[in-house]
Design goal:
two-stranded antiparallel ribbon; Four Helix Bundle (Hemerythrin (Met), subunit A); 2 strands; mainly alpha; 6 helices
Length: 277
Amino acid sequence: MGGVESDPGGTRFERVDLSGARFERADLSGASFHLVDLRDVRVHQALLQGAVLRGVELVDVAIDGEVAGLTINGVDVAPLVEAELDRRHPERAKLRPTDPDGFREAWELIEGLWDATFERARQLDPELLHASVDGEWSFIQTQRHLVFATDAWVRRAMLGDPEPWDALDLPHDTFRELPGVPRDLEARPSLDEVLALRRDRMASVRWVIEGLTPERLSAHTTPVTEPGYPEPESFPVEACLRCILSEEWHHRGYAERDLAVLTTSDRAGSPAADEAG
């Protein structure tokens, strides 16, 4: 198989063994898979829009991501998934606010949930907070990413700071590197250090939400003229805040999921994560 940066577009693979192959930032749009063995494949941050799977056997498959318009055997299951998630987590309804008071209630919920999660993290061996569970970000890296999200969509897009970054900001995996935007994957700040940063950024969100009015919520941001992320353009204020609520909710869920694994590992006295540093 070709190496990095190869361009085998239109190549036909027939009766070949590609087990263990790795596709990184690859364009497989329009590809066709017929009579293939996809057992134990791992797909991370992929766009499956318009994908059609027929005659497949989905057994013990886990799908975690944004689901909309997913039809299985003629049934649109996305609404069923949303209804079940709301049943399991009734507080999710608060994360779909429509007015300033709703956003204030939603942010109060987010802060309360994270307070409990932060306390849970403090009970662990600090080294485990740098551990990856099943290839995902560590707890510390998750906090760094949320700092980045707040810097991007609140401090830059909404408050107009062209360079709001801290050296510990951690963009998403698919981020296209931009001058001035930090992306230090090797940094290992302490929990206290990263939580101090998080508290500061969460206070920025609270300040914005506390000052929300119906007029402000329905307005658009003033574009930041300097290059950076997000792009120098105007965004709906409501969309920026919804982005933050979504990031906080989902990453808190991921953190709780992984803390459960790390807690079991800590009590057993043996690492259950990919790497504890």
